[in-house]
Amino acid sequence: MGDADVRVLSLKNPPSAVGFAAAVGQKEYEGPLGSEFDLHDETGTFGMDTWEKSESEMQRLALNLALSRGKCDPASLEAVFAGDLMNQCTSSAYGLLGFGKPYFGLYGACSTFAEASMLASAMISAGYFQKAAAVSSSHFCSAERQFRFPLEYGGQRAPTAQWTATAAGALILCKEGKGPYITEVMPGVIVDKGINDINNMGAAMAPAAIDSLCTYFTETGKKPDDFDLILTGDLGLEGHAITLTLMKNQGFDMTRVYNDCGLLLYGKESQDVHCGGSGCGCSASVICGHILKGMASGKWKNVLYLATGALMSPNSLKQGAAIPGIAHLVHFSMDRSGENSDA
Amino acid sequence: MGDADVRVLSLKNPPSAVGFAAAVGQKEYEGPLGSEFDLHDETGTFGMDTWEKSESEMQRLALNLALSRGKCDPASLEAVFAGDLMNQCTSSAYGLLGFGKPYFGLYGACSTFAEASMLASAMISAGYFQKAAAVSSSHFCSAERQFRFPLEYGGQRAPTAQWTATAAGALILCKEGKGPYITEVMPGVIVDKGINDINNMGAAMAPAAIDSLCTYFTETGKKPDDFDLILTGDLGLEGHAITLTLMKNQGFDMTRVYNDCGLLLYGKESQDVHCGGSGCGCSASVICGHILKGMASGKWKNVLYLATGALMSPNSLKQGAAIPGIAHLVHFSMDRSGENSDA
């Protein structure tokens, strides 16, 4: 730690996930992970009269559920790290307003849930907080209105496009617990390889994922097969294929262990989502609804989670800029004592 | 630390500001602090062909200047915490892209610079980084286009409106240095008192400032007069008056020491900015261009900086929501050993 050439941050006394939950829309509920999610709303409105308010409400419900699943007294929560895709990150601000907790607003596009988990776990490990939450969300209908066209327009989708997930995930991290633990984190750098196709975000973000993965494996000396699962945030079909191929060229064969949250969330044949899911809520819900539960029940012991984000805006693309990507890394492990004991 | 009832985070071995710089537009250069800013561009374009690119370039210049003012090798910088007002925080993403550093994207509206300083200093104090930067910006022309009307429209401004500053500030924090030090930080909670007048942001944000100030004074037992200066981010004329009055009612008389970055930046009589400055770059430039320089030269020893942010969006207001505010607190002190030695 504290060495300019080292990017991986090993967390002393790794914080434990003690509560986690996901709230999703109907399409996500109908997908292969549907039965694992804690709550769904078949209308996608979550009882609200605008899609933006629906997304806020979904975040509120996810954090409430995570607190209750973890049997955490809401009063014991000391900080919330959260963000979303909406302009001015309003889904988080309005959704989490009622909790009255110290609030760190984040923007990492689809990497936001990893950024929140990274900062929450690092701040707990350092002793600033005993318990903190990481929360993120996205909503298909609010995202379409803001980034593309309102649903009523009925625009056609490109084959490489991804589907913004209607989903929120919340994770309560605590100083003590039975795991899964966050043992290492690594913030990403912004990578811009000149790709400017808004309908192919997977290709735009893959270079950032590859940069973070190569840095991590090189620094730690670990190999892909040391993990039960390596999971990118939401590169989708295109980005997944690019990452797998280019990582192999770099000498890291991830074939056996590599998957992508955007591919896990929806049925490949049965659900018409083209290249897979995306949005802040995509990997947040897959991690909180599926992965952490699987780890807690003994299915996986070591998961490398790498959420990717595309840091452009509709405006920056209109002005001719390319799409910069970033990939933040979080290492979930059931083994707390393995590497980072308090020296 | 780590107590759910305690919100103030005391930083062990407080990190030092080692480099700081501000880049501003012509109006800010013509204001009372003009001569203290490190760079200005009389056209406001900073050589770019869109206002959004100008803002990015201004951020890039500010960070470069802060590195050079602090005689810091750019290679020694281990992380950047940054954000801005533009949708998807693109001023920061594109402006800081070229530095190739681990990047934490933040959104706290006008409180972003305090949020960045808070997280950067806490992460350094914990030993994760030796050197990290906090950066933020705003640009009058990009903000008008996004939040209100494009300049060409010539819309009239309300008397309680504030003027979005064309300014960027960058602060390099380091494990070691001669000060000013960040000795304490306190993340704010989101406060919503039902105010929904977009032309009176000072009134909307004042309750958050009052909440954070009262919490800080109550927890630490300190009094306003223990500080040479208490500085809110940009509450402007309205918010400053509300805060002063309501704090007095709470038993904290700040008359002698209280000022506001939004009031310091522009000439009250000579410059037509109605209620004062605002925007992420307002307090960032006042802190980096004026306050830290004054502290380093012995003018002030203890400054309590409290940046306020309004967490609404144009969209959320159209949908009938009020304006939630937040106020993050950063305590700058020339006395490192006073309170937080490594026990």
Topology, please?
2 copies of one chain form a homodimer.
Chain A: E1 9-10, E2 16-25, H1 26-29, E3 39-41, H2 51-69, E4 79-84, H3 90-96, E5 103-105, H4 112-125, E6 131-138, H5 140-147, E7 163-164, E8 167-174, E9 181-186, H6 201-220, E10 229-232, H7 236-249, E11 258-260, H8 261-264, E12 277-278, H9 280-296, E13 302-310, H10 314-318, E14 325-333
Parallel strand pairs in A: 2-3, 4-5, 4-6, 7-12, 10-11, 10-13
Antiparallel strand pairs in A: 1-9, 2-8, 6-8, 9-14, 13-14
Helix pairs in contact in A: 2-3, 6-7
The CATH topology of the largest domain in chain A is given as Peroxisomal Thiolase, Chain A, domain 1
What's the CATH architecture name of the largest domain in chain A?
A: 3-Layer(aba) Sandwich
- Number of separate domains of chain A: 2
The CATH C-level name of the largest domain in chain A is Alpha Beta
DSSP E strands of chain A, number: 14
